[in-house]
């Protein structure tokens, strides 16, 4: 496959994405946007982009923070996401900038785009679905679920897949009920899969902090991979690879 760093901008902010393309790429190839966790555009999402390329898609690991910065501690990670948590318009504009940048990727099909995100990135792709009526589907993997206070509720445009640890301490029952109400109000085609006994960050092999509620779970990780590929195939059912 072909991989390369891809520089794009949101206003004056330079962003450093990572693109992985299939070995035998075709014109108008579907794109899977991948949004990182609160630590930044780490190797974790670069590998996910490569996984998408192996499946015949263009994997585009985006950069939410700028200059591909990566936090080195809980404190730094918290500081990195804080501006976006406090200003959801900033979050929405930043991920929209990545979506718009797809036009600059040769052979990418802007009409066949999905977005998947992990933890903080899960919330980001939820917001993309709230403001973008072109994205085919979004996949939130152990994503935060917090209402966007800057837009009307019930404006989801894409199909939605939520992969969630039933014991995730970072998503309250109220958070989920609010999101479910919003999805239903939007008459959205959505599905949610709860993994019993599973906590936050269950796809990250480095997650091993029970006190924080972030613990890797191999079964949930493998099951989520299958669900993700099935969902992508469903969203692109009229798309020929």
Strand content: 25-35%
Structural class: alpha/beta
- CATH superfamily, by name, is Alpha/Beta hydrolase fold, catalytic domain
Which architecture per CATH? 3-Layer(aba) Sandwich
Described by strand count, sense and barrel closure, the largest sheet is:
8 strands, mixed
Total E-strand runs: 10
Q: How much helicity do the residues have?
A: 25-40%
What's the CATH class, please?
Alpha Beta
- Helix and strand element order: EEEHEHHEHEEHEEEH
Radius of gyration: 16 Å
Characteristic terms for this protein:
eight-stranded mixed sheet; Rossmann fold; two-stranded antiparallel ribbon; 34% helix; 6 helices; 241 residues
Describe the overall structure.
The chain is of the alpha/beta class and about 240 residues long. The protein has one domain (about 1-235): Rossmann fold. Helix content is about 35%, strand content about 25%. It has 6 helices and 10 strands; from the N terminus they run E-E-E-H-E-H-H-E-H-E-E-H-E-E-E-H. The strands form 2 sheets. Strands 1-2-4-3-5-6-7-8 form an 8-stranded mixed sheet, with helices on both faces. It has a two-stranded antiparallel sheet with strand order 9-10. Helix 2 (about 75-85) packs across helix 3 (about 90-100) and helix 3 (about 90-100) crosses helix 4. The chain is globular. It starts with a strand and ends in a 6-residue tail after the last helix. The relative contact order is 0.13. The mean pLDDT is about 95.
